[in-house]
Amino acid sequence: MIDQVQLKPEGLFTKLKNLQQVKKTLEEEVKEILVVQRAKKEEEDALNGDAMMQLELNHQREELVKHYGYKIQETKLKHRKIRMKFESQLHQLMEQHKNLSSVFTPQRLPKEIESAEYSTEQLQKAERMKLEQLTKQMDGLSHSQNTEPFLETTEKSP
């Protein structure tokens, strides 16, 4: 029985050493797991940060796309207004051209020329008459100016 009691403490020591070795191994494994866990957490945090930056960048780009969409619509409206104004002006010009082409047809052109020449002659006659009247008035003025000094000298001589 003594051997069994002695074996028991030796067995217990061996068992204790084995358990201590297992404990040491498990502690090292736990340390490795904690290191890996920290690395994974840091990697996850970095990925979350990247994801947040991407979300913010996407939001900014969506806002930019909206802004450009509004600018495009605004430009389209401006172009539409310009086109409508141009079409209106073109329509007016076409109507004016139709009216002018009906007034100045080859058949009416000689009459229009004759009328314009007659109007020119009448205006020239009126201008000549005005010129003659002005000439007469100037002659009258110069004659009266020439007679005034004569009258003044005759009045002084007695």
From TrEMBL:
Keywords: Coiled coil, Meiosis. GO terms for biological process: synaptonemal complex assembly. InterPro entries: SYCE1. It comes from the Eukaryota. Pfam families: SYCE1. Residues 134-158 are annotated as: Disordered. GO terms for cellular component: synaptonemal complex. The keyword Coiled coil applies. Transmembrane segments: none annotated. Belongs to the SYCE family. This is Uncharacterized protein.
